From TrEMBL, chain A:
Pfam families: ABC_tran, oligo_HPY. It is a peripheral membrane protein. InterPro entries: AAA+_ATPase, ABC_Ni/Peptide_Import, ABC_transporter-like_ATP-bd, ABC_transporter-like_CS, Oligopep_ABC_C, P-loop_NTPase. This is ABC transporter ATP-binding protein. CDD domains: ABC_NikE_OppD_transporters. One of its GO terms (biological process) is peptide transport. Its main location: membrane. Keywords: ATP-binding, Cell membrane, Membrane, Nucleotide-binding, Transport. SMART domains: AAA.
From TrEMBL, chain B:
This is ABC transporter permease. It comes from the Bacteria. The keyword tRNA processing does not apply. It is a multi-pass membrane protein. SUPFAM superfamilies: MetI-like. It comes from Aeromicrobium piscarium. Belongs to the binding-protein-dependent transport system permease family. Residues 95-304 form the ABC transmembrane type-1 domain. Keywords: Cell membrane, Membrane, Transmembrane, Transmembrane helix, Transport. InterPro entries: BPD_transp_1_N (IPR045621), MetI-like (IPR000515), MetI-like_sf (IPR035906). It is found in: Cell membrane.
Length: 330, 318
């Protein structure tokens, strides 16, 4: 097996939001790792804690959210407990992020070039002129036509797809080791989605960085990533190499998610199998498995004891007392 | 955008006609005979009759308005019933004084409000933030005449500043600024309160809700830089609007401060004219204030266009 340590190692991360009526555990004992150059997906529905996890890794969790427990190591360096100044040296330089809504994630009153140059000037010794030249290069690298003209334009002069390209250029400006993309294509139309994801894949191969793709779209996770982490109610419930997760899911939640994807083979006018019920209230988690209330396989054990995420096979882990039978075993 | 600005300028016409017509009618309803104002009590009926005829007061009110309006178009706003001076000349003497105090007040208010708001949002709920909020509430809650008197006590007397009187700029610029300082400071107290609160509220909203702030943080930009470089340029827009509104309000609202400090400005002119039933002067002053209101709003729109790239480019594409 490989002996090089992973680029990013998150261990037993717990993020708590303190409120007047008590605290909510948005991320509960999450562990995950990303190797250099690897692409992982974190999938889950709204409120599953995937975005909070991503933002916490970026050091962007703000009060009332706080890290209650756990560790985040980047290339061996512990990030939890860094001072604000130390975090600023990591953000934008070693870890960069692309956000969901390109319409809102750029400053409307600043030229796009200036916004890219700002990041470059923060993390490198380049002069103003050099930073500008680099910004033009980056815009060219993300396939924006006429980059020399576009650097001087404002976000409202660009389309949604182009703005997301600018965001990618911005994120890549200082050559990060890890790019976190939080639902980068959700706000875009389908053809643009494809282009953006393809572009990210190519740039990733060129630059050798790792990508953490946060998405609720299982199809995207299937086509673009090496490993998938499935999150439910603030926990990772299953992780596996992408292909194996899709062909042979073990956690009943993953299974149910996959079943609810419409396929061309399924007969028309037939209702899709949906998961009954809704995710639990994170403020009132039971002692048992958080999926137990909706799980067809749940037993008394599931209601009272929480299953841990255990690596049952090499590279495969799930948190379940009664996993779905493996298709491969039979 | 250009069309919009053009339309704003066209607004001047109905506003001016409407305001001047309404004031003319209202002043016409005031008890008291303008002829008596000119001649003084105890004039003979013959003299009153003669002057009434001479002033055209026997004409129907609409016709009198028409005469005034035609004159006003040519820059002649009539003559003061009291002094016989040209109202246009009187206004031209008084407006610069009011403008000076007003601008000075705006500058003082902004110079204090901007840094206070910026420091406040660095740590919302901190001692500084709460103290700043307190000063703002004090600023809006205290009526100007009280602020003025307090300032005389705690500023003018200890520092030897003139508490009343006015020295024109052309006569002695330094003394002029000294005499303008207290009235301007009095006006600035309330302005500061409004500007500080508006700016602080918008900065907080932008900082907590705008995704571009998260992007900036993700780039590794420090919080102070985010506020100054990213958020402030988005938060100036609501501030500019409020400044514009206050500018117009100050023109008419300087009455109290000008009276308190005996400053010969537009407000003082107007209040004196009202006491003396000098309707022609009141009429002229009201129209000037109304026109200034529209022009200031026009200037605010221009400023928006100059500062906001979204509007600027919209204009270019039309």
């Amino acid at each position: 097996m490989t002996t090089t340590p992973p680029l990013l190692e998150v261990e037993n991360l717990r993020v708590v939001f303190d409120g007047v009526l008590g605290s909510v555990t948005a991320v509960n004992d999450v562990s995950l790792s990303v190797d250099r150059g690897q692409t992982i997906a974190v999938v889950g529905e709204s409120g599953s804690g995937k975005s909070v996890t991503a933002r916490t890794i970026m050091g962007l969790s703000t009060p009332p959210g706080r890290i209650a427990e756990g560790s985040i190591r980047l290339a061996g360096r512990e990030l939890v407990g860094l001072t604000d100044r130390q975090w600023r040296g990591v953000r934008g330089s070693q870890i960069a992020m692309v956000f969901q809504d390109p319409m809102r994630s750029l400053n409307p009153t600043m030229k796009v070039g200036t916004q890219i140059e700002e990041a470059i000037r923060l993390h490198t010794d380049l002069s103003k002129k050099q930073a500008r030249a680099r910004a033009v290069e980056l815009l060219d690298a993300v396939r924006i036509a006429a980059p020399r003209r576009r650097v001087d334009e404002y976000p409202h002069q660009l389309s949604g797809g182009m703005r997301q390209r600018v965001m990618i250029a911005l994120a890549l400006s200082c050559g990060p080791e890890l790019l976190i993309a939080d639902e980068p294509t959700t706000a875009l139309d389908v053809t643009t989605q494809q282009q953006i994801l393809d572009l990210m894949g190519e740039l990733q191969a060129d630059m050798g960085m790792a990508v953490m793709l946060i998405t609720h779209d299982i199809g995207i996770a299937a086509s673009y990533t090496d490993t998938v982490f499935v999150m439910y109610a603030g926990q990772v419930v299953e992780s596996a190499p992408t292909r194996r997760l899709f062909t042979d899911p073990r956690m009943p939640y993953t299974r149910a998610l996959l079943d609810s994807i419409p396929s061309l083979d399924s007969p028309a006018h037939e209702p899709l199998p949906a998961i009954e019920g809704s995710p639990p209230d994170l403020a009132e988690l039971s002692a048992g498995c958080s999926f137990s209330a909706r799980c067809p396989r749940a037993t008394q054990t599931c209601l009272t004891q929480r299953p841990a995420l255990i690596e049952h096979e090499a590279g495969r882990a799930w948190a379940c007392w009664h996993p779905v039978e493996s298709k491969e075993a039979s | 955008m250009l069309r919009l600005l053009g339309r704003r300028l066209l607004h001047l016409i109905p506003v001016t006609i409407g305001v001047s017509f309404l004031t003319f009618m209202l002043l016409n309803l005031l008890p008291g005979d303008p002829a008596l104002t000119v001649l003084g009590e105890g004039a003979t009926p013959e003299a009153v009759e003669a002057i009434t005829e001479q002033m055209g007061l026997n004409d129907p009110v609409l016709l009198r308005y028409w005469h005034w309006f035609v004159g006003a178009l040519g820059g002649d706003l009539g003559t003061s019933l009291n002094s016989g001076e040209s109202v246009t000349t009187l206004l031209l003497q008084r407006v610069p004084t009011s403008l000076e105090i007003m601008l000075l007040a705006q500058i003082i208010a902004l110079v204090v409000a901007l840094p206070v708001a910026i420091v406040s949002v660095r740590r919302p709920g901190s001692l500084f933030d709460r103290f700043a909020g307190l000063t703002a509430f004090a600023g809006v809650a205290t009526p100007p005449f009280l602020v003025g008197m307090l300032l005389v006590l705690v500023v003018a007397i200890p520092f030897g500043l003139p508490a009343t009187g006015w020295i024109p700029f052309t006569e002695n610029p330094v003394m002029n600024l000294r005499s303008a300082f207290l009235p301007a400071l009095t006006l600035a107290a309330a302005l500061y309160a409004v500007y500080m609160r508006v700016l602080r509220a918008d900065l907080v909203t932008q900082l907590t809700q705008e995704e571009y702030v998260t992007t900036a943080r993700a780039k590794g930009v420090a919080q102070g830089t985010i506020i100054r470089r990213h958020v402030l340029r988005n938060s100036v827009f609501p501030l500019i609007t409020v400044i514009g509104i206050n500018m117009g309000a100050l023109l008419g609202g300087a009455v109290i401060v000008e009276t308190l400090f005996a400053v010969p400005g537009l407000g003082k002119l107007m209040i004196d004219a009202i006491y003396q039933r000098d309707v022609v002067v009141v009429q002229g002053a009201v129209v000037v204030i109304a026109v200034a209101f529209v022009l200031i709003n026009f200037a605010v729109d221009l400023l928006y266009a100059a500062l906001d790239p979204r509007i600027r480019h919209d204009r270019a594409s039309h």
